[in-house]
Design brief:
Elements (H helix, E strand, L loop, with lengths): L18 E6 L2 E6 L9 H4 L2 E3 L4 H6 L3 E2 L10 E6 L8 E7 L5 E7 L2 E2 L7 H12 L8
Antiparallel strand pairs: 1-2, 1-3, 4-5, 5-6, 6-7, 7-8
Length: 139
């Protein structure tokens, strides 16, 4: 599992409710950020890591895999339809490239409307910005 330190990620992109990885002694566990995490000293913040997107994360976040994706099984596509009040079809697509790199991006009526994002907290923030609700992550 690839991990990046907060030094490489702008801590301003995190918000309360985001799922992150927390290093506790020799274990790394996924936790939901709470308000008190933002008061931690800088050296303790080094124990928080963003969650890199992968197929399991997409499934836990409620995405559905497109088994008819033309590049399947070498590359994979996942889709999450957003519950927004509009006549337009608003979705977040997740992709796993043939080199195993994973990213997600928003679309409206099949037109891409965001830059790619590579971490779960970014997908959560995108979902929240578009719906006003939290994206639930299954354990």
């Amino acid at each position: 599992m690839a991990l990046l330190s907060l030094a490489m990620i702008q801590h301003q992109s995190f918000r309360v409710g985001n799922a992150v990885l927390l290093k506790i002694h020799t274990r790394i566990v996924m936790v939901k950020l709470e308000a008190d995490h933002f008061n931690w000293p800088a050296d303790k913040l080094k124990e928080l890591f963003p969650v890199v997107l992968n197929p399991d994360i997409f499934i836990k976040a409620g995405f559905v895999e497109n088994k008819k994706y033309p590049l399947y099984p070498d590359a994979r596509e996942f889709k999450l339809v957003l519950p927004v009040q509009t006549e337009n079809l608003t979705e977040i697509y997740g992709y796993i490239k043939n080199n195993k790199e994973a990213f997600a991006r928003a679309s409206v009526n099949a037109f891409i409307t965001s830059n790619p994002v590579y971490h779960l907290h970014q997908v959560q923030n995108l979902y929240y910005a578009l719906t006003g609700a939290e994206l639930e992550i299954k354990p």
